[in-house]
Write a structure and sequence with these properties.
4-stranded antiparallel β-sheet
Length: about 400
């Protein structure tokens, strides 16, 4: 049988030497995490969490982000009430009703209208009587003159009789003209009064055919829109200061955005604007800058910039909050990368670029911003692979340990 003790004694020293050598190699490994080799090794260990994008020339436009509120345009609001007191006898529209321009909203009866109608009918009668009477007098004077002229030409009557007949004809014409003109003026004033009270031309024309039938005064909509307020019930008496209906037209709306004064230099009237609202996150509304306020808010150091936005489907409602992006620069071709790829490293703008088997930190110069992308003026070239996800981890690993 073999003696095992001498064999074990021979094997133990070589094994101890191997363990000691392995410990020495681990102790001699570099420990500087800021070196490129350390960044590369760490990146390879976390490569599943890193995403890159190949840099390429793209179309980009500069924008100014701002917040604002949806408003109804001033010329698309109508507050409707009678110009005189009356009693409501019919209502044709309620809150939420869609109405068109000229549509009837309510009917009223009023003593003021009755008196105005009576004045109109009297003025109409006086005018027609004056016209008929004047025409008859002129016709009579003309016939007398013609007859006298024939007699004078036949030397049957004296010349003074012809002169008298001619004088009477001229007086009749002048009197007729004055009488008709005076009654026409009174008729025009009475008709205008009815128009001011709210009667239509057709209603006024119908008065002479039905002078004894009551004519109702109608409230009509001056614009196409939606009834948002109705302060009326049938049988109620309303005065000339009452606001019976309020109608708004939402086919176009205004959005007043707050733009900081540092960005004001880049804002111009007519610039395109993109609008997002919380209620419709998947939709983008387009508009144009129509007004830049002349006053700076001393508290927020911002200026109101008004945008007009088409709203044919009425989805934008008054007082909605909106995120506004004012496109301030013309579209141009430039190198742009996602904003997520850009980091701040001690006041420097940096990105991480894939190089070989690792990632290298590179300082860049940023330009204009457009939505979620940033223009890179210097530091990147087309074809570079920039880290867009996981770059913050790389930034932390690239910093030396304290």
């Amino acid at each position: 049988m073999l003696n095992r003790r001498p064999i074990q004694a021979l094997l133990i020293p070589p094994l101890l030497m191997m363990v000691l050598c392995a410990g020495c190699k681990r102790a001699a490994a570099p420990s500087n995490p800021s070196s490129p080799q350390a960044t590369t090794a760490t990146s390879e260990a976390a490569s599943h969490a890193i995403e890159t994008e190949t840099v390429a020339l793209q179309t980009i436009a500069g924008v100014i982000p701002a917040t604002g509120k949806v408003l109804v345009t001033e010329d698309r609001v109508a507050i409707i009430g009678p110009v005189h007191g009356g009693r409501l006898v019919r209502l044709y529209a309620g809150q939420g009703s869609k109405v068109t321009k000229g549509q009837r909203l309510a009917d009223l009866e009023s003593a003021d209208i009755d008196q105005a109608e009576a004045d109109y009918l009297k003025a109409l009668s006086d005018y027609e009587n004056a016209r008929r009477t004047s025409a008859a007098e002129v016709k009579f004077a003309q016939a007398t003159y013609d007859r006298t002229k024939v007699l004078y030409e036949k030397t049957i009557t004296a010349g003074k009789n012809l002169q008298a007949a001619e004088h009477d004809l001229e007086v009749a014409k002048a009197t007729a003209e004055s009488s008709v003109a005076g009654t026409r003026s009174a008729l025009t004033a009475a008709r205008r009064h009815l128009l001011i009270l709210g009667l239509k031309q057709s209603d006024i024309d119908a008065l002479k055919n039905k002078p004894d039938s009551p004519v109702l005064f109608s409230l009509t909509s001056p614009i196409t829109g939606i009834v948002v307020e109705r302060n009326a019930t049938i049988g109620a008496t309303v005065g000339s200061d009452a606001n019976v209906f309020k109608i708004i037209d939402l086919s176009r709306v205004w959005i007043d955005a707050n733009v900081f004064e540092k960005d004001l230099e880049r804002v111009r009237r007519g610039q395109e604007v993109k609008v997002l609202v919380t209620a419709f996150p998947e939709s983008t509304f387009s508009g144009r800058v129509i007004l830049i306020n002349s006053v700076v808010d001393p508290e927020t150091r911002s200026v109101k910039v008004r945008t007009e936005v088409p709203n044919p489907d009425g989805r934008l409602k008054p007082d909605m909050f909106a995120n506004v992006s004012i496109i301030t620069d013309l579209h141009r071709t430039a190198i742009s990368i996602p904003q997520s790829a850009v980091l701040n490293d001690g006041g420097k703008t940096v990105v991480f670029v894939a190089e070989g088997s690792g990632y290298k930190k590179r300082q860049v110069t940023a330009g204009i911003q457009s939505n979620d992308r940033v223009e890179i003026i210097d530091g990147l070239n087309a074809g570079d692979k920039v880290v867009v996800k996981g770059n913050y981890l790389l930034l932390q690993q690239s910093k030396p340990e304290k």
